[in-house]
């Protein structure tokens, strides 16, 4: 241990994992700094609700909310809603990824295509997907198709634009270097352009995942009879406030889970980008 | 560089080469009717004032830039685009940040379709050659500038080129590292028997490494001049003849 401490540059160079661990700093101080505010907020909620500082009918104590959540999950009622919500956003997000990344990679490579499509893209992006939802309902009906499509529409653009941006900002000098070694166009794409774009693509993916949940809730509040978003509206309508908050926390949890999955994937794929920063 | 070859390879013949760029609609001649023969295994340094076309010449030789007139022949064959008998070392290391040192050095071979294991075996050998054996698994972000540049040199050497093209490869390094790297370049050139064409700003570097120095003129029209550096190797920077040569080269630039 002492020897390792005496030779820090070598240690840092040979063990990037150790360096990353050190930077994250998982000590007690780090824990307090990271979670302290959240714990404070939770405690404040609980105390102000039980003491009656706020109206407990609007902000029920957290244990009541937890009980409602548990009841909903145990009876399977909320599980159905979660399943259908996950299916809607999953299909939409998956389709946006499947279309957005390849299309973005292609558009980013070819200047003429990108230049021709850019004004259209900018226009579509600036048009709120929610504003278009009535149009989609007219076209696709009030069923699953319009719901999935509005989420797909909203998630496509962050992914597409981030991918195009990622491809366009690839260092030309690296591409030139690969060419001097006799790399073919396809090899340059596979070995240089694609890996260099991955961090930018992940920015788009994380933005899209957030957007997907946002649009999911909006879509489920209009003309749905299942789904977590529907439960929020429905519980409020029936004045089941603890259940309403349970559904809201569930949505937040879904968002967090999606983000964590993406962050972990990003860490695996772009460890190098963290180091360069 | 197989053993079956009966004659050394890596001869470069530049014949009537000219190249101009268009800048704001006007033609800007950079190289004008240039002729030069570079012997196989020769070390040629190219010096000249900023903007005289050194990088342009090197990029034409690399096949990254097409000439307007004339041609370049390598071992008798005209150059068309990039070629696997040439390797370029740029002013910046140009390493792929997502690959380790080993991955970067093997990269040059891998993109030509050489199997990974074979490319890595060759890479390991060249990483040792530039003295970075312990850093195979490090990422570029964990290297110093000099180490990164050595990785770039190892990568170029790994593909066993006949001709090494270097554009101010040590320009970004501090004086101490630069001298160490010059020693390494001299050793590598001697051991690998490659033709080396080195663009540099540093006259001492040119004298230290080159058999001949090509001095490119500031004004277009005056032909470039060639100066033989007939000093014994290994060279000593403080030796009288070395110093005299440096004085002579500086006079060429009107720096007296
Ligand atoms: N792609 C280009 N388009 C237009 N002009 C160019 C281009 N590349 C180089 N030039 C011009 O050609 C001339 C020679 O440039 P070059 O880069 O070869 O100079 P250099 O001798 O390498 O200079 P330095 O020592 O500063 O690196 C310059 O006047 C430059 O403006
Ligand atoms: Mg230059």
Automatic annotation (TrEMBL), chain A:
Membrane-topology descriptor: Multi-pass membrane protein
Subcellular compartments: Cell membrane
Pfam families named among the record's database cross-references: BPD_transp_1
Cellular compartments per GO CC: plasma membrane
PROSITE patterns tied to this protein: ABC_TM1 (PS50928)
Residue intervals passing through the bilayer: 31-48, 90-108, 120-142, 148-167, 188-219, 239-265
Free-text function comment from the UniProt entry: Probably part of an ABC transporter complex. Probably responsible for the translocation of the substrate across the membrane.
SUPFAM superfamilies noted in UniProt: MetI-like
GO biological process, any: alkanesulfonate transmembrane transport
Family listed: Belongs to the binding-protein-dependent transport system permease family.
UniProt protein name: ABC transporter permease
Species per Swiss-Prot/TrEMBL record: Paracoccus salipaludis
Every ABC transmembrane type-1 domain range: 82-262
Main location, first listed in the record: membrane
Keyword presence, Membrane: yes
Record keywords, A-Z: Cell membrane, Membrane, Transmembrane, Transmembrane helix, Transport
From TrEMBL, chain B:
Keyword Oxidoreductase: no
Residue ranges of every copy of the ABC transporter domain listed in the record: 12-243
Pfam family, any one: ABC_tran
An MF annotation (GO) of this entry: ATP hydrolysis activity
InterPro entries: AAA+_ATPase, ABC_transporter-like_ATP-bd, ABC_transporter-like_CS, ABC_transporter_ATP-bind, P-loop_NTPase
PROSITE patterns per the UniProt record, alphabetical: ABC_TRANSPORTER_1 (PS00211), ABC_TRANSPORTER_2 (PS50893)
Keyword vocabulary terms for this entry: ATP-binding, Nucleotide-binding, Transport
SUPFAM superfamilies for the chain: P-loop containing nucleoside triphosphate hydrolases
Gene3D superfamilies, alphabetized: P-loop containing nucleotide triphosphate hydrolases
PANTHER family recorded: ALIPHATIC SULFONATES IMPORT ATP-BINDING PROTEIN SSUB, TAURINE IMPORT ATP-BINDING PROTEIN-RELATED
Protein family according to the UniProt entry: Belongs to the ABC transporter superfamily.
Listed name of the protein: Sulfonate ABC transporter ATP-binding protein
Protein species of origin: Paracoccus salipaludis
């Amino acid at each position: 241990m002492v020897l390792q401490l005496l030779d820090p540059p070598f240690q840092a160079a040979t063990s990037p994992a150790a360096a990353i661990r050190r930077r994250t700093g998982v000590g007690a101080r780090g824990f307090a700094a990271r979670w302290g505010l959240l714990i404070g907020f939770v405690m404040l909620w609980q105390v102000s609700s039980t003491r009656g500082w706020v109206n407990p009918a609007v902000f029920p104590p957290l244990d009541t909310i937890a009980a409602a959540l548990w009841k909903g999950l145990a009876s399977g009622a909320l599980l159905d809603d979660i399943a259908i919500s996950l299916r809607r956003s999953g299909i939409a997000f998956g389709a946006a990824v499947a279309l957005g990344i390849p299309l973005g990679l292609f558009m980013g490579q070819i200047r003429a295509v990108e230049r021709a499509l850019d004004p259209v893209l900018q226009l579509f992006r600036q048009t709120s997907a929610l504003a278009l939802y009535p149009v989609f309902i007219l076209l696709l009906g009030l069923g699953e198709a319009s719901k999935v499509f509005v989420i797909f529409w909203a998630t496509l653009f962050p992914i597409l634009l981030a991918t195009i941006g990622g491809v366009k900002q690839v260092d030309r000098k690296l591409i030139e270097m690969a060419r001097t070694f006799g790399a073919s166009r396809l090899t340059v794409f596979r070995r240089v352009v694609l890996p260099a774009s991955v961090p930018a693509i992940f920015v788009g993916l994380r933005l899209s995942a957030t957007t997907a949940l946002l649009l999911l809730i909006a879509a489920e509040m209009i003309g749905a009879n299942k789904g977590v978003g529907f439960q929020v509206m429905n519980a409020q309508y029936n004045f089941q406030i603890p259940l309403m908050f349970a559904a809201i926390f569930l949505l937040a949890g879904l968002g967090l889970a999606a983000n964590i999955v993406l962050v972990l994937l990003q860490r695996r794929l772009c460890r190098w980008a963290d180091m360069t920063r | 560089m197989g053993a079956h070859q009966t004659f050394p390879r890596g001869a470069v013949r530049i014949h009537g080469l000219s190249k101009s760029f268009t800048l704001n609609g006007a033609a800007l001649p950079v190289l004008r009717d240039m002729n030069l023969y570079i012997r196989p295994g020769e070390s040629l340094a190219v010096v000249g004032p900023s903007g005289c076309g050194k990088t342009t010449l090197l990029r034409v030789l690399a096949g990254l830039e097409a000439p307007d007139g004339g041609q370049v022949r390598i071992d008798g064959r005209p150059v068309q685009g990039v070629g696997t008998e040439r390797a370029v070392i740029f002013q910046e290391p140009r390493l792929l940040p997502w690959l380790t040192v080993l991955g970067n050095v093997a990269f040059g071979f891998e993109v030509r379709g050489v199997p990974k294991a074979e490319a890595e075996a060759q890479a390991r050998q060249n990483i040792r050659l530039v003295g970075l054996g312990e850093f195979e698994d490090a990422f570029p972000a964990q290297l110093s500038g000099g180490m990164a540049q050595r990785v770039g040199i190892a990568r170029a050497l790994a593909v066993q080129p006949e001709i090494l093209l270097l554009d101010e490869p040590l320009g970004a390094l501090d004086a101490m590292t630069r001298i160490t790297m010059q020693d390494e370049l001299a050793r590598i050139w001697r051991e690998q028997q490659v033709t080396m064409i080195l663009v540099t700003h540093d006259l001492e570097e040119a004298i230290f490494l080159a058999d001949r120095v090509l001095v490119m003129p500031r004004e277009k029209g005056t032909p470039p001049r060639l100066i033989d550096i007939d000093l014994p190797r290994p060279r000593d920077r403080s030796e009288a003849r070395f110093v005299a040569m440096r004085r002579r080269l500086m006079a060429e630039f009107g720096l007296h």
